[in-house]
Amino acid sequence: MQSAEESTTLADWIAQRFGGVPPQSLIVIAGDASPRRYFRASYPAKTAHQPPITYIAVTSPASENNPAFVHVCRLLAEAGVRVPHLLHYDLDRGYLLLEDLGDETLLPLLSSDSVGAWYGMAFRALQLMVAIDPRAAALPLYDDQRLGTELNLFKDWFVQTLLNYPWQQAHELVFNQLSDILKRNAAEQPQVVVHRDFHSRNLMCLNNGELAVIDFQDAVIGPLTYDPVSLLKDCYVQWPRSRQLAWLRNYQVDMVAAGVLSATPDLETQFIRWFDLMGLQRHLKVLGIFARLALRDSKPNYLNDLPLVVAYVRQALTLYRESESSVASFADWFEAELMPLIVTQPWYNECTLQP
Q1: Measured between alpha carbons, how far is 215 from 203 in angstroms, rounded to an integer?
Q2: Vertex 133, ends 130 and 136: CA angle to 5°?
Q3: Which of these, 201, 174, 116, 196, lies nearest to 330 by C-alpha position?
Q4: What pLDDT score does 64 carry?
Q5: Distance separating alpha carbons of residues 54 and 43, to the nearest angstrom
Q6: Residue 2: Cβ within 10 Å count
Q7: Measured between alpha carbons, how far is 77 from 84 in angstroms, rounded to an integer?
Q8: pLDDT tens, 122-155?
């Protein structure tokens, strides 16, 4: 719960935005994996037959890159992507006041029957993002250094800290060889505006049927397949690989039509490889992030999502071990050294991916 001082200070700041009138209530609501704190600020309805007028107020420490949030919010809105309207902000204090989009994320609404329509809307949002000129977007590059730093989360937090595995020089060699492949895979793709966490918990379903995008402050200029793999190989829900590849194929066709990709005889095979290896990088990173959230940030529920992420990693390693010797070496080490430790973890259960 928020402290009385925090609530009063935030309420005073909100009141200043509304002619000195404080909100009728300021209630903490569920947040995300970050240190940001979210509150619903309510004002009385204009008439007796209308609901209260509500806003989302955010306290966000400087570590959360608040200037980037403001910049990306404007960038996406100007491109036609549905994002929360940014009403007021104070970067010095780390205060934001946003449109209230409600509480319905996409995740609980997904089913085998409904997912096609929802993902169609999600891919349309991605198409709008890809259409933004990356040279004018003023976003950081998702370069080798940034990608390598993220991969190290797997080594530092999942392997050494959560599994308590003694990391040695031989493991570093195997890990670095795989990292080199993943870096090359990312670099050889078209570089576009990338949300970097585009999944079912960061998509909001609005009362008017729109799909809105949130949690976009970490956007970068990066590989074309990063956001599609975040969506299709979601860490919180899985779909058969056959459906993943069908959605991916449709997106590939759209990207060719948009001029982002060039039609070549081997494009489909190449695009799937980009997608799978991008997913491998993302899921290795996520193993580290979820371990860190549990151990450092006292958010143990993220451990419950690790089995699906482990399954994604093992699937990608299996798919490419025959064609990539560095993938084969890493896969052998992962299966021989890490899986015996993983299966003993209290959070682990066997997760079988659908074909």
Answers
A1: 9
A2: 140
A3: 174
A4: 83
A5: 6
A6: 15
A7: 9
A8: 999 999 999 999 999 999 999 999 999 999 999 9
Residue 25 dihedral angles phi and psi, to the nearest 5°: -150, 155
Q: How many residues does the chain have?
A: 355
Structure tokens that stand for 283 in this block: 């899921």
Amino acid identity of residue 171, one-letter, is H
| Cα–Cα distance for residue pair 99/341, rounded to 1 Å | 45
Q: What is the pLDDT of residues 322-355, one digit of tens each?
A: 999 999 999 999 999 999 999 999 999 999 999 9
What percent of the chain is modeled with pLDDT above 70? 97
How far apart are alpha carbons 20 and 107 in whole angstroms? 38
Tell me the two tokens of residue 188: 């050889």
Exposure letters 149-188 (e unless 16+ CB within 10 A, then b) = ebbebbbebbbbbbbebeeeeebeebbeebbebbbebbee
The residue whose two tokens read 């890809």 is 130
Beta strands in the chain, from DSSP E residues, in sequence order: 25-29, 37-43, 53-59, 86-90, 95-99, 191-194, 203-205, 211-213, 220-223
Q: Give backbone dihedrals phi and psi of 134, rounded to 5 degrees, phi first.
A: -65, -25
Q: For residue 32, what pLDDT is reported?
A: 62
Domains of the chain in sequence order = 4-99 (3.30.200), 107-342 (3.90.1200.10)
What is the average pLDDT score of the chain? 94
Q: What are phi and psi of 194, to 5 degrees?
A: -125, 125
What are 239's two structure tokens?
């779909």
